[in-house]
Amino acid sequence: MRADSNQDDMVSDSARDDMGPDSNQDCRVGPGADDAAAWGIVGCVTMPYVFAIVFLFLAAISALLVWRSYRSGVESGAAQAERRLADSLAQRASTVFGRGVSAQEAAHNLLDVMRSAVILTDGLGRARYVSPLAGHLGVVVDGHIESNEIRDMLNQVVADDTIRDREIEMDVEAESGRITEREPVYLRARIGRIADIAPAGGASPDPDDMSTSGGADRLYAVFLENISEQRNFERMRRDFVTNVSHELKTPAGAISLLAETVSDAADDPDAVRYFSGRISKESARLTELVQKLIALQKVQDDDGLSAVDAKPVDVLRIVREALDENKVQADAANIDLRMYVGDDTVGVTADAEDDTVGDGPAAGKTPAIIVNADADSIKTAVKNLVENAIHYSPKGTHVGVSVKQDDDDVSIRVIDQGIGIPAEAQSRIFERFYRVDPARSRATGGTGLGLSITKHIVQEAGGTISVWSRPGEGSTFTIRLPKANTSKNQA
After folding, report:
1. Which of 231, 228, 225, 230 is nearest to 119 (CA)?
2. Do 349 and 410 touch, CB atoms closer than 8 A?
3. Which residues are CB-contacts of 363 (< 8 A; sequence separation ≥ 6)?
4. How many CA atoms lie within 13 A of 464 on its CB side?
5. Which of 177, 180, 172, 167 is nearest to 139 (CA)?
6. How confident is the model at residue 453 (pLDDT cuts 50, 70, 90)?
7. CA-CA distance, 448 to 391, in Å (whole number)?
């Protein structure tokens, strides 16, 4: 019986082997299964759940890693932003403008408000910034420095990296705006290096790179200060000292010589009378010169024509008085003096009644033309212009004074038919002691101070004076004064 039992077991094992590996998928076990079989049943039943748990665990870990990575990135970006802000604040604090100021904005505005003209350029003369004042000087054309003297200074600074100062002279367009007219301008130039120019992309500069040679990789500042007024003043001061010494010496020497001659000719009454008359004439000339020097000093003094002296003045009455005071000279030179008001083309003679304009279309009562000024000073200015017109006009000609008002100002024009003024002398005729024709001025007794006094008087009154002239045709001097507010004055 035992042999049969063993045989049955062998047959049962062989049968299970024939069922193949798929037979393990059947987790049902009959009664009498051993412990190993029981564990197999449990593993077969729980395996899908294990896989699901592992998957969820891995997914949770991945999500956690992604979240931590995101948080790390956010924190890193915030830290970088804070560092950039701190660097920016530190940079602002470290500039000359102090904390809380944008260095770029402050530097740009500083360049604009500087009194000197400023140009920022590389060593090759290629301008990166040109201030408005520098633009008016015309130093930079098409983005390049055109002045040869400034380019020469820049080349020297590039060569030895030393700050340089120099006074240069340039010819610029005249204020008249005429293309053919140029006038000299004196500039004090100062050039120095202020920074290096970083290559594009932040790469280190290559010393062998031809594009950075000649100072192309360095930034230079060019400061230009216009000292023309100072130089002109110094020239005028030298001329003034020379001229006043000469003008005072001439009549003083003549008086001394004439007095000696009178002494020698004491026995000749006719000679004494003649030379005494000459002494009187030279004394009058000397007195007039001194008086005009005093008048010039008065109008140049800040307190000479203060606002207290400015009162409503009738320009027509002032012009008539100036013409009356020059009538004797005009009659002696056979020159006709006439006054014109508004659009009147006929005019009125100097000795006409105050309330008439003339016998032309504008005849009749003339309304007052009022400006705020010192009456005596304005009369002196007009008188000087009329006197000059008489001295420089041929006999038998005409000198007219025109008075006209518009919405904003009052114009006084003194027109003559004299010898005229050359174009090159017109910019200097208002200088003290300047004479277009010195010989003619001395023959007529001129001091060379009349136009200078007139200019200062007009400027003190808030006006302007200009001249138009052409040799052989005559001259026109125009005074413009602000018109007074008549309604305010009446109030």
Report:
1. 225
2. no
3. 356, 357
4. 3
5. 172
6. confident
7. 12
For residue 315, the one-letter residue type is V
| pLDDT of residue 479 exceeding 90 | yes
Helix extents (H) in 326-374: 327-332
CB 193 within 8 A of CB 159: no
* Alpha-carbon torsion (133, 139, 144, 147), positive or negative: negative
Cα–Cα distance, 491 to 487 (Å, whole number):
6
* Torsion of the alpha carbons at 427, 433, 439 and 443, rounded to the nearest 10: 120
CB–CB of 107/129 below 8 Å?
Answer: no
Tokens at residue 35, please?
Answer: 């412990």
In angstroms, the CA 328 to CA 350 distance is 11
pLDDT, tens digit, for every residue of 183-205?
788 999 999 999 888 876 555 55
Provide the residue type at 187 as one letter. L
Q: Are 144 and 126 in contact (CB under 8 A)?
A: yes
pLDDT in tens, 9-66: 444 444 444 444 444 444 444 444 455 455 455 555 567 777 778 777 777 787 777 7
* Residue carrying structure tokens 């659009």: 343
